[in-house]
Predict the 3D structure of the following.
Amino acid sequence: MKFLVVTDIHGKRSAVDWINRAAKENNTDCVLILGDITDFGPDDMAEKILSGIEQDVYAIPGNCDPLTVPSVVRRFGTDMHGKCIELNGLTLVGLGGSNPSPFGTPFEMNEDAILRELKKVSKEGMILMIHAPPYGFNDTIPTGLNVGSRSIAKIVEEFKPILVLSGHIHEAVGIVVSDGTTFINPGPAMEGKCAVVEVNGGKVEAKLLGPLG
């Protein structure tokens, strides 16, 4: 399958146009959204963005989304928050929100909750959709600190996903391959960034796109 991966839209409705164009031009099967669809709401902003995307959408909330966003996602696509589904032979697992931040954003969870919720749904060899990155991968902020979730890192170590997709840290754009897992932060869609990722027979191919507009 081929995915268009976007994250951190932060309410920028104009992103819908280039998301649709990129999906069509790259012949993707669906769009994966990794959270922060809105910038602290409101729900109707999420509705306007999600309803405008032409391909099937699989989405999780980000830490800057209201707690009600998963219910909005369910009206326009597939809510992946705390979910595990089979998609054309691939196992797709999602968890939105983030580990605690200094900013007290709406959709944060403590590390125990993250570990508990992910343990319920994780499968070996999965594709993991998360908003916050695992500690040590695509999680470096400009000061040089790693701010990813240690619980997500534990899940990665235990279940060895073939692919980990995250956002949240706008500056930590990139593709990293480690111990058989590909880690991707496509960069913030509010800046016109995204990724095209193809998974075929356990092999992952990915490219970063943008800025688009």
User: Anything to note?
Assistant: The first strand starts at residue 2 and ends at 6. The radius of gyration is 15 Å. The mean pLDDT is 98. Residues 61 and 96 are 5 Å apart (CA to CA).
